[in-house]
Amino acid sequence: MSSHTAATELTFLGKLILEGEISCQTGLHIGAGKGSLEIGGADNPVVKDAFGVPYIPGSSLRGRLRALLEQSLGLAVPSELVYLSKRRGQEVRIHHSDRPDDEVCILFGRNPGRVEKVSGEATEATTATPARLTFYDAPLIVDSITPQMRENLDDELTEVKSENAVDRITSQANPRTLERVPAGARFRFRLILDVLCPEDRPLLARVAEALRLLEDDALGGGGSRGNGRVTFSALTLTWRSKDYYAKGASETNLLSASDLAALQGLVSAEDFAEKLG
Fold first, then answer.
1. Per-residue b/e over 15-45, b at no fewer than 16 CB within 10 Å?
2. What is the pTM of this model?
3. Are the beta carbons of 16 and 195 closer than 8 angstroms?
4. Distance in angstroms (rounded) separating the CA atoms of residues 158 and 153
5. Residue 233 and residue 21: Cα distance in Å, rounded?
6. DSSP H stretches of helix in 50-102
7. Cα–Cα 20 to 30 A to 125, which of 80, 162, 210, 258?
8. How far apart are CA 93 and CA 81, in angstroms?
């Protein structure tokens, strides 16, 4: 856990900006919902922007990284989970606590109010902390879909994967189609970590851990069926101090065109906090 305490005072020290590319090692499906169905189209289309180009919503990346951190830190257990939604068949449970050193809640924020626990009686959360992490939508690098790839796609930028659910007794098939961004596609991502106190400086190590966990997990839907394997590359880390915004001071480039191993090595080093001034 972090060194934050109930007495930790928040101020603004600067921002850590992490940018890079997300590369699809297998087809990626982040669903757009049933409202965008077209005649003759896939049963499950991917989310697209106003120009019809697929992208990765910042909310999808944020939610997956949070879930992986909760699991890694042993926080995805009934005693640590609360309901965001109890609608039958659409239950949503996330980790929430009032502990001042809880790194997940520090990174992703928390609000006071009544919380209904998965295990135990409802309680009143008393702590409010701002989210340190900001995730942006990751646009597709359109040129990563090469002319050779387009020759084999069902649409200009996407493919359609056909699947069958087979009844175990009658052997009757129930076919479905799934739209995917093809393997080989790349997206440009950007996230920002606000450093609001000296104790926040080591938090980027948790973000790097979550990104590495995601490389051996899946992003989007159908991960257990082969979808959503991604890798992170071309990483750039920049530090912009308070003086950058207030006085026009120069930013500091901490990492360029690197991979996750290099990022983890940098942010886990004992002198990393000193690099932030």
1. bbbbebbbbbebbbbbbbeeeeeeeeebebb
2. 0.91
3. yes
4. 6
5. 5
6. 58-72
7. 210
8. 6
Please name the residues in contact with 88: beta carbons below 8 A apart, sequence gap of 6 or more. Answer: none
Provide the β-strand partners of residue 55: 139
- What DSSP letter does each residue of 113-165 carry, written as one string? EEE-BSSS--EEE---B---EEE--EEB-GGGS-HHHHTT-SSSS-EEEEEEE
* CA-based nearest residue to 208, from 253, 166, 258, 163: 258
Plot region of 216 (φ>0 → left; ψ -120 to 50 → alpha; else → beta): alpha
DSSP 215: H
33, 233, 62, 240 alpha-carbon torsion, rounded to 10°: -130
Place of tokens 């493919």: 159
CA gap 62, 58 in Å, rounded: 6
CA distances from 167 to 163, 173, 177, 223, 252 (A): 13, 7, 17, 22, 59
The two structure tokens encoding residue 215: 């490389």
